[in-house]
Specification:
Elements: H1 31-38, E1 45-48, H2 54-62, E2 66-70, H3 74-85, H4 89-100, E3 103-104, E4 107-108, H5 109-115, E5 129-136, E6 144-149, E7 155-158, H6 162-169, H7 174-185, H8 194-201, H9 205-218, H10 225-242, E8 263-266, H11 269-275, E9 289-291, E10 301-305, E11 321-327, H12 333-347, H13 349-354, H14 356-360, H15 366-381, E12 387-391, H16 396-407, E13 411-419, E14 424-431, H17 446-455, E15 459-460, H18 461-474, H19 488-501, E16 507-509, E17 519-522, H20 532-546, E18 550-551, H21 552-562, H22 571-581, E19 582-584, E20 591-594, H23 600-620, E21 624-626, E22 631-634, E23 641-646, H24 656-659, E24 664-670, H25 675-684, H26 686-692, E25 696-699, H27 700-707, H28 714-720
The structure holds zinc ion.
Length: about 725
């Protein structure tokens, strides 16, 4: 394959978290319209045959496309519909007021729910507090509460109060609540499936009591259609925050299975309902939204079909599409089962019955998923248009699922971008041209070689396997039997890869890890050494010198545009670049600006001053000093002699050719704020370490302080040169050099 455009399209801007965010596939906002533009498609009808990420649909509609979405998940459909309406905040407030005013006996629903969570401040005893409770699995009471008091400002973790225990005893007959929430989805069924039980068991009794009183009153809510829609969307958030899948320990909470963590949070569900507003009111201007067969205006909008796309048998009834553009899902048992149950809770048994499959099936394996995705490809292949997809959270077996499902449905992969750190792919399929034979005649190792040469740095097994699968599919490799999808496909492909990568004539393993964790490099590396980390740093510097104020996403997007789509910048590394060169901008969240000491003039002054210091120390120690970059100290009386390079960046490879010398020890003088970056490169890239590991790295401040040392002589110089340990400690260094 040719490594180059399309670039990897990262987030154009970051969007606030959406309802169900933790279940939805991560989507780089803007990617699908970038991919369409790259493919020369600027306007017209686009089909999303899966509709499992509302943000991608919204983004396409905002970019001026007309989007046809087929989605058989009414929960996701409702979120999309309410988001598109962009109701004013007043409409949300009115909806919540109508809902809260529902009467349960003498009491308003709102006060009845709020009362269950009243938790007085341990200090001032006010009940004007915000609380979330901390639980251990299978306990009857929380073990602590996180509280902030609006009255006295107290804030922290406290033990639970007597009132907290009393509240829990007020929730009534839990068996009755359980029966009610099950009957709502499966009337007359006293023995629900394991999946349904799993869902119910993932709710605490108090949450189940709240949910049961909510769904009990839902049908009697008499209000406008708009407000009813709003309440239904907000309740999805409540149902999600009501379950126990909110682990205290896990920072990143992306459940795929319904499995209750050992310790978790319980939230005040009325507060959750109110907070849900900011998670759905995230666009300013409404987007026209219609239900098929009604179509939105030519100026753009969304046409929603609440079912599977292949239920529409007559494709002539559909608009004339320019392309398919979607986010490919990974199976998510948790999301699908919850959504089936929640639709029952909101809309009753008929809605739940539509998703019956999810209530019965508990495991989604590789073959199941390939077949499910294949029906989408098979259907859309009849449209004879490109199929563009973002595929996040990929493992190598899922890459194969998608590529094989597409290949066996008359699609040919022509382009791809891939983010190894995020494991996120961007694929461009076109209807297969059977007449042309494009099959590659190159060695199987060729794409991996080209990739490593371009990266100019080693890569690990998983990264190279992804690259191998994608690039060889683009090259229509005969050895790849993608059309045949069975259990042997992954194993065979992996074996082909392992045979290739273990060819010692071409590749080197640079560590002594197990094969599946190992890193690889080229036996014959490119003559010009410009490692990836340094290339990116150069590009980063150009950007931050030109722009006054920028967000993480903006820099990442810029850098990614300059590199091949298979080589986007790692977020982890970019964060380090930002901390080294930039400071957060206090007046705008998530924005950065260059630190003042990093301005060009300021760094030029540093370099000048340090050049003079090196000169004067050299002369003081009895060397003859010459040159500029490098400055050389030579003397026949002293051993060793030195050569100095001064840099404001951590792009050490710029000195590579000049640093190769037997006569001199090389010293690189660099700003202390670059230490962590440099350390990172040396630790993470064994080839980098091999080139530069023996150099003396000396910080600006250390050189200045040595210069101020009145007793400095050659002996002390040698002793203290490396005493402000610059960058890295020797550990776990590679073995094969
Ligand atoms: Zn207080």
């Amino acid at each position: 394959m040719k490594f180059g455009k399309p670039a990897y399209f990262s987030d154009k801007k970051s969007m606030p978290p959406l309802i169900l965010d933790r279940f939805l596939p991560p989507y780089p906002f803007g990617a699908l319209s970038d991919m369409l533009h790259f493919s020369g498609i600027e306007k017209g009808w686009i089909l999303d045959p899966i509709g499992n990420q509302p943000l991608s649909v919204i983004e396409l509609a905002q970019a001026g496309f007309q989007v046809f979405v087929a989605c058989n998940n009414p929960i996701l459909g409702k979120i999309l519909q309410v988001m598109c309406a962009a109701y004013p905040i007043s409409q949300y407030q009115a909806a919540i007021a109508d809902f809260g005013a529902l009467k349960r006996g003498e009491k308003r629903l709102e006060s009845q729910i709020k009362q269950l969570y009243i938790s007085p401040c341990p200090d001032c005893l006010s009940d004007q507090t915000e609380v979330r409770f901390l639980w251990k699995k299978n306990q009857s009471f929380p073990f602590a509460r996180e509280l902030s008091c609006k009255n006295c400002g107290l804030n922290g973790l406290y033990k639970i109060a007597e009132e907290d225990r009393e509240n829990l005893s007020q929730i009534g007959n839990i068996q009755l609540h359980r029966t009610k929430v099950i009957q709502r989805i499966l009337p007359g069924n006293s023995d629900p499936s394991i999946a349904v039980k799993e869902v119910i068991d993932s709710y605490l009794p108090r949450s189940l009591a709240v949910i049961s009183s909510i769904i009990n009153k839902l049908d009697s809510l008499i209000t406008t259609t708009e407000r009813k829609d709003i309440i239904e969307a907000l309740l999805i958030h409540v149902f999600d925050y009501g379950n126990m899948l909110w682990g205290i320990a896990s920072s990143r909470n992306r459940p795929k299975q319904i499995s209750v963590p050992a310790e978790f949070y319980e939230f005040n569900l009325w507060k959750v309902l109110e907070e849900a507003v900011t998670r759905i009111r995230i666009i300013e201007n409404a987007i026209p939204f219609t239900y098929f067969p009604v179509l939105p205006p030519d100026s753009g909008g969304i046409c929603f079909y609440p079912g599977r796309i292949n239920a529409i048998k007559d494709i002539d009834k559909l608009p004339k599409f320019r392309a398919v553009a979607t986010v490919l899902p990974r199976p998510n048992q948790a999301l699908w089962t919850y959504n089936a149950v929640w639709s029952g809770w909101i809309w009753g048994q008929d809605a739940a019955r539509k998703l019956k499959g999810a209530l019965e099936r508990r495991r989604y394996d590789w073959i199941w998923h390939t077949q499910a995705i294949r029906t989408v490809f098979a259907y859309t292949s009849k449209l004879e248009v490109p199929f563009l997809a973002v595929a996040p959270e990929l493992s190598n077996s899922y890459i194969l699922v998608y590529l094989s499902a597409a290949s066996s449905s008359k699609f040919q992969l022509e382009n791809a971008a891939y983010h190894p750190e995020l494991k996120s792919g961007q694929f461009y399929w076109y209807p297969k041209q059977t007449s042309i034979n494009l099959r590659s005649k190159n060695e199987l190792s060729k794409n991996i070689q080209n990739y490593l040469a371009l990266k100019n740095a080693p890569a690990d097994y998983q990264e190279l396997l992804s690259l191998f699968i994608i690039s060889e599919t683009i090259d229509q490799r005969e050895a790849f039997q993608l059309e045949k999808f069975d259990n042997t496909l992954f194993i065979n492909t992996q074996k082909l890869f392992e045979d290739t990568i273990q060819n010692k004539e071409v590749f080197l393993q640079v560590d002594d890890d197990q094969l599946e964790n190992a890193e690889f490099w080229l036996k014959n590396p490119p003559t010009q050494y410009q490692p990836f980390y340094d290339q990116i740093e150069g590009c980063f510097i150009r950007y931050v010198l030109k722009n006054q104020l920028f967000s993480f996403d903006e820099v990442a997007y810029f850098i990614n545009q300059q590199f091949p789509g298979m080589l986007p910048v790692s977020n982890f590394y970019l964060q380090r670049l930002l901390s080294s060169y930039c400071a957060p901008f206090s007046e705008e969240a998530n924005h950065y600006q260059l630190k003042s000491q990093e301005f060009i003039q300021s760094r030029k002054n540093d370099l000048n001053q340090l050049g003079k210091i090196i000169h004067s120390i050299g002369i003081k120690l009895g060397f003859s000093v010459s040159g500029d970059q490098p400055i050389e100290w030579s003397s026949s009386d002293h051993e060793p002699n030195y050569r100095f390079f001064i840099t404001a960046s951590s792009i050490i490879s710029q000195f590579k050719i000049k640093t190769e010398s037997n006569e001199f020890e090389t010293v690189i003088i660099f700003p202390g704020s670059r230490a962590e970056l440099l350390s990172y490169k040396l630790k993470n890239d064994p080839v980098y370490h091999n080139h530069f590991g023996k150099i003396h790295f000396v910080k600006f401040r250390h050189l200045r302080s040595m210069n101020e040392n009145p007793g400095l002589n050659f002996k002390t110089w040698v002793q203290i040169l490396d005493s402000d340990p610059a960058v890295w400690q020797e550990s776990n260094q590679p073995v094969l050099f």
